[in-house]
């Protein structure tokens, strides 16, 4: 059944209708007395006139069209769209934190400073790093800072290194961040096992190499089994190893990037540590470093003196401030509550269940969809719709059909090294019943690809808007509230 299309607010109501509003405060100034005449409207704006009930129903109906992890399954590969405990939200809303002003003096901010300082220490322990900065406002922002730190490190050593190496399965932000930070980017191909090809890496490494950017497990969801050898090769050339923390979820309590040989890491608090992900933010991408890079971290740093905390801005080698204030406080508070609530054993279970869930789905469906890398995965894995191509069913058709089944589609067509890629990450928070429902939906789609492929081409049919020409929609968006 097709959902009823909700009218626009401009199409609702009729002249003269209004909602309840409080009267103006007695003695409040007239607009023309405080706003320059040139900025005042000559006529009232053509706003919709609707009753309070009309407005409430309109926006409530619109909210029901939203899809999120709180409403249904969201197996978006590479993005860790997991459910986040509401208790962490409650911690971030404690009035003393919620109402704190960023310009408060240090003596009135000791609680927040303590939490920030302890969060840095927890992240150091979880990641195997020596120091952290909480300033970056997102993962890509953290990448950019990490590369600025690498640049400052070599500049301080009077070494001119201009090249950053990235695998062909890397996240798209990796080469972009390196380029923006002033480096040239060299891409190396993966081997037949979906891992970094050591021979290709050896050819790319030279005295101009500043860093190799990668994540482990990689974007295929596979653990890089040669990571120690990779680290030795990179360090032998005097270069540094950068860790993209997008895939940290399955390592919690099991392994630490710092112990693998990584020198710099950014962590996505909004993926791994209990902050709602998506919707444009806010995010948080703290950056951790080994001792050699600590002098270059942004100012201010948080220092603990006995039982008090203070900001330290006197760091002559620092790359400077990269964000106003000291990061997104609400995001950091949620992460702090999440880490404290779970503890070491709880975080380890996060990793173990994310790995278990991904391998369960993979094994259940690998006879229905092509599995290019058939080995034990970590938190995510990549199928391909290659088996369905003989009936001209593509990855996008599988994705659109899932929408009709109340499931958010996985990531498709990424990573680019897998044609018709379908990248699935169930996370640790989903029950076996949810996973089985997803498996049944995927099997139904695979069966339809054989018996009725045309129905998949028409999907979705239960949404207010059906299949769009996505390229045209992106290039020529219709932003009018009525036909233009």
Q: Describe the strand arrangement of the main beta sheet, using strand numbers.
A: 1-7-6-5-4-2-3
Global mean pLDDT: 93
Name the beta content range.
5-15%
pLDDT < 50 runs, ≥5 residues: none
Assembly state here?
single chain
- Structural class estimated from helices and strands: alpha/beta
Task: Tell me the number of helical segments per DSSP (H or I, 4 or more residues long).
Answer: 16
Work out the helicity level: 25-40%
Shape: globular
Largest sheet: 7 strands, mixed
Rg from C-alpha positions? Answer: 26 Å
Task: Give the topology string: H per helix, E per strand.
Answer: HHHHHEHEHEHEHEHEHEEEHEHEEHHH
List how many beta strands DSSP finds: 12
First-residue to last-residue Cα separation: 29 Å
């Amino acid at each position: 059944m097709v959902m009823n299309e909700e009218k626009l607010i401009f199409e609702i109501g009729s002249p003269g209708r209004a909602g309840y509003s409080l009267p103006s405060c007695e003695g409040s100034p007239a607009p023309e007395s405080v706003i320059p005449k040139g900025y005042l409207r000559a006529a009232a704006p053509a706003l919709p006139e609707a009753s309070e009930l009309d407005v409430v129903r309109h926006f409530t109906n619109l909210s029901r069209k939203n899809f999120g992890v709180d409403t249904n399954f969201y197996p978006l590969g590479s993005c860790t769209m997991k459910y986040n405990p509401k208790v962490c939200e409650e911690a971030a809303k404690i009035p003393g934190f919620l109402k704190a002003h960023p310009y408060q003096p240090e003596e009135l901010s000791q609680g927040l400073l303590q939490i920030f300082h302890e969060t840095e220490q927890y992240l150091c322990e979880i990641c195997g790093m020596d120091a952290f900065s909480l300033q970056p406002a997102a993962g890509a922002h953290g990448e950019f800072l990490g590369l600025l730190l690498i640049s400052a490190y070599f500049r301080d050593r009077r070494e001119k290194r201009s090249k950053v190496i990235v695998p062909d399965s890397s996240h798209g932000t990796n080469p972009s961040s390196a380029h923006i930070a002033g480096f040239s980017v060299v891409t190396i191909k993966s081997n037949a096992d979906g891992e970094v090809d050591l021979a290709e890496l050896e050819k790319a490494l030279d005295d101009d190499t500043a860093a190799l950017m990668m994540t482990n497990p990689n974007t295929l969801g596979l653990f890089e089994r040669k990571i120690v050898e990779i680290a030795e090769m990179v360090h032998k050339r005097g270069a540094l190893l950068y860790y993209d923390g997008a895939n940290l979820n399955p390592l919690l309590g099991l392994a630490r990037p710092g112990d693998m040989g990584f020198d710099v890491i950014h962590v996505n608090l909004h993926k791994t540590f209990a902050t709602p992900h998506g919707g444009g933010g806010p995010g948080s991408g703290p950056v951790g470093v080994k001792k050699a890079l600590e002098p270059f971290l942004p100012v201010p740093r948080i220092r603990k003196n006995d039982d008090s905390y203070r900001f330290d801005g006197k760091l002559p080698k620092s790359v400077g401030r990269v964000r106003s204030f000291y990061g997104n406080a609400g995001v950091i508070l949620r992460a702090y509550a999440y880490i404290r609530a779970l503890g070491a054993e709880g975080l380890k279970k996060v990793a173990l269940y994310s790995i278990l869930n991904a391998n369960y789905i993979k094994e259940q469906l690998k006879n229905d969809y092509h599995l290019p890398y058939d080995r034990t995965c970590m938190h995510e894995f990549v199928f391909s719709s290659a088996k369905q191509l003989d009936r001209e069913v593509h990855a996008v058709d599988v994705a659109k059909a899932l929408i009709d089944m109340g499931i958010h589609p996985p990531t498709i067509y990424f990573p680019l090294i897998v044609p018709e890629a379908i990248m699935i990450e169930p996370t640790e928070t989903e029950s076996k019943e949810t996973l089985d429902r997803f498996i049944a939906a995927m099997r139904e789609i695979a069966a339809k690809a054989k018996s009725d492929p045309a129905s998949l081409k028409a999907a979705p049919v239960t949404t207010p808007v059906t299949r769009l020409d996505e390229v045209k929609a992106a290039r020529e968006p219709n932003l009018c509230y009525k036909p233009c």
